[in-house]
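Kindly inspect this chain:
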Amino acid sequence: QLATMVDMSVDYGEKYGKYAMKISSVRLMDFIYGVNTRTQRKYLFKDVVGGNGHEWQRNLLATLILRQPLPQLELSANLDEYDNVKFLIQDGQQRYRTLAAIFNDCVKLPKGIEKFGDQYIGLGNKSYSQLPQKFQEMIGEFPLEFLVSFGLTEEEEYNRFILINNGTPLSKQDRRSAQVSEGAAYIKVYRDWE
């Protein structure tokens, strides 16, 4: 499955690789992605087909239309019981799941998208399927960047999660929406020590 990603030849040592993939390819391979429920909080949004989506989600859709970069997603590569590769999201769950919400018409563009140029006139408050074909194709061609870890132990995954979230302590909302798991408990206790 990694062959479908484009190796960006970034050397982070043997445990990490940096890759990029078009959103359309990620969408086709959705079955090999999951969320690391040991560290990730719950998905924050309630996606409703035909709904507007949360403001944060609407802004993510605008980012795709405006061709602005998104932060990379962090994945860990794991083998399932049949030795198939499964990627678990270590960081970026809200972005990843919002992409599915966008394709399922649960998110609409902000009304003010027109202020970014004449080519966006008439796109405000439209969902993915209501967009002209060229904008749907632009979204599909949008490159997502991934930092993929290989062979990390659970403790290394927890420590990586803590490291990449350093400086962004868990808020009260994060604590309420945290997954109920050993990893989430480990991270919460670690944050309580700070």
Remarks:
- The first strand starts at residue 6 and ends at 11.
